[in-house]
Amino acid sequence: MKPRVSLQDSALRNGNFSLRIDPVRSEDVGLYEAWVKYNTEVHSCHVELGVITVTLSQPNPVVENEMVSMSCNSSHRASLVETCWFHNGHLGPTSRTFCSFPGALSIFRPAMSDAGSWKCQLRYSDNEIISATYNLQILGFDGPTNPVVYAAAGSAAH
After folding, report:
1. Which of 14, 121, 125, 146 is the residue whose CA sits 20 to 30 A from 55?
2. What is the rounded end-to-end Cα distance, in angstroms, of the chain?
3. In sequence order, which ranges of the chain are alpha helices (DSSP H)?
């Protein structure tokens, strides 16, 4: 897993044996075990790492007015009960046309206003709630609604 893993050497003296993985990948899911020997004592701990992923049906940035689907999946073993999507901190869907499928969100005609932070929150049958955030970028025109622009002859038009 090198160079994605590291130990905080300065924290070891204080008894902190945390493992840092950056970036986390789907294949990192599983049970991790740490063994620490201090003098004659051996201590161990087990940590299970779960992973949640948000993927797009097309590359980011998304072209304005071209349908996009965002899917949200987790390695959690319980049954998925509910999927909620939040845009910039607000619960969706909004008055625009959004369809929510288990773990997925489709935006049929994405606009510049759909850009920003999207949070996927998954709730499972064991009441576990898992969430991830994705920054959606929209490639489009964020200008005046009237496409006619007048400029004086001899001047610059923007």
Report:
1. 125
2. 50
3. 9-12
Residue 132, amino acid: A
102: preceding bond cis by omega (within 30 degrees)? no
Which of 129, 130, 134 shows the shortest CA–CA distance to 54? Answer: 134
Strand order in the sheet with 80-87: 90-91, 80-87, 116-124, 129-136
Give the range among 30-39, 96-105, 111-120 with minimum mean pLDDT. 96-105
Q: Which of 9-23, 74-88, 114-128 has the lowest mean pLDDT?
A: 9-23
Q: What is the pLDDT of residues 83-111, one digit of tens each?
A: 888 888 776 655 444 556 676 888 888 98
